[in-house]
Write a structure and sequence with these properties.
This protein has 351 residues and is an alpha/beta fold. It is built from 13 helices and 11 strands. It folds into 2 domains: 7-206 and 219-259, TIM Barrel (Alpha-Beta Barrel), CATH 3.20.20; 260-345, no CATH class.
């Protein structure tokens, strides 16, 4: 295995994601460093520091339960407002207690107070840091990157770079490749601890690609773009990046309150596509969420199923699809975690 054959999934720390990581094989776990975006889920606009610290404690204790003491990138950008009034030592104490192998994530253009909080955490942990460079930082990011590195007082050997194209759904391939080439060539890449190229072509809504009681194949454009990037770098003698994606999720958080009840669905990763199968609203179907059993059964005979033993998720899909009596009703968390499990194993098999 070469250095670039490593996987960085960007996840929202949902229970299904962490459960899928927990059930991954030792081979998969050894080649994955998750980037976890921390969401505290506090409803109050200006929560008291004690409330924020309790929410942080509750959230982070899940990491060692599901991922052990392995390295993980932690990005607190979605919790920046809640953590704003929290004393830096108290914040760091909780992170160190639960995730001592954490590598905090910085980004360009951070709020100065938030940046100071994260840099204090970086030095408390002593694991270096990750800097996430977005396509929004183009056309010129090198000067800001150099400035941020100087503020961290870390050598580049202790820094992981993640170039994040975020959503490329619906974008022309040549434009995606152009953005990728600019990100990879604007600054020297040698010396950094690791380099990752991340993106997602997963749709925001399944209805954009698949109708009720139907199946669709959706192109994994980010996978093809990473393959192109590896060849591009090889031809120019540039360091090859690791592969990163948002797994089977759309990158951004949904706007407003999500109140609808999802139709049973399965998001199943193939070589160059996602196989997306969807039923209909459980309120409008006599089987309700048990439609998922039929969705799994259809996959088993579709020619796309990877087989028993491929992943924990594949074994569960087989059990649902063959009518195992121990598999009762299911819910959105179940559907998603089986897809995550298969996706993690599929990506590692491809790298």
């Amino acid at each position: 295995m070469t250095e670039h054959q490593h996987y960085v999934p960007i996840l929202k720390m949902k229970r299904g994601e962490l459960e899928a990581l927990s059930n991954a094989t030792a081979v998969v776990k050894g080649r994955v460093t998750p980037l976890l975006e921390v969401l505290l889920g506090i409803d109050a606009e200006n929560p008291a520091p004690e409330e924020s610290l309790q929410a942080l404690d509750n959230k982070l204790q899940r990491v060692p339960e599901k991922w052990g003491e392995r390295s993980v990138f932690l990005d607190f950008r979605y919790a920046e407002a809640e953590l704003g009034g929290v004393p830096n030592p108290a914040f760091a104490n909780i992170v160190v207690a639960h995730v001592p192998a954490a590598i905090p994530v910085l980004y360009l253009g951070m709020d100065p107070a938030y940046q100071a909080q994260q840099i204090a955490l970086i030095h408390r942990l002593g694991n270096g840091c990750c800097i996430r460079v977005s396509v929004e930082d183009l056309p010129a990011y090198e000067a800001n990157l150099i400035q941020l590195i100087q503020v961290t007082e870390l050598p580049v050997e202790a820094i992981d770079l993640v170039f994040d194209l975020t959503s490329i759904y619906g974008q022309a391939v040549n434009l995606v490749q152009l953005s990728t080439s600019v990100l990879l060539t604007q600054t020297p890449l040698n010396g950094y601890r690791s380099i990752t190229l991340a993106a997602s072509a997963f749709p925001e809504l399944l209805s954009q690609e698949v109708g009720r009681n139907d199946v669709a194949l959706v192109s994994r454009v980010e996978w093809g773009n990473w393959q192109w990037a590896v060849s591009y770098c090889h031809e120019r003698g540039i360091r090859k990046p690791r592969f990163g994606d948002y797994s089977i999720n759309y990158p951004d958080l949904p706007e407003g309150d999500v109140t609808w009840q999802s139709a049973p669905n399965l998001r199943y990763t193939l070589d160059d596509h996602w196989y997306i199968a969807k039923g209909q609203s459980p309120k409008n179907h006599p089987l309700g969420n048990r439609q998922f059993h039929d969705i799994c059964a259809t996959l088993l005979v579709s020619g796309h199923y990877a087989g028993l033993g491929f992943s924990w998720g594949d074994d569960e899909i087989h059990a649902y699809g063959t009518g195992s009596p121990v598999r009762g009703n299911s819910n959105a968390e179940t559907w998603r975690k089986l897809g995550f499990s298969h996706h993690f194993a599929k990506v590692i098999s491809q790298l």
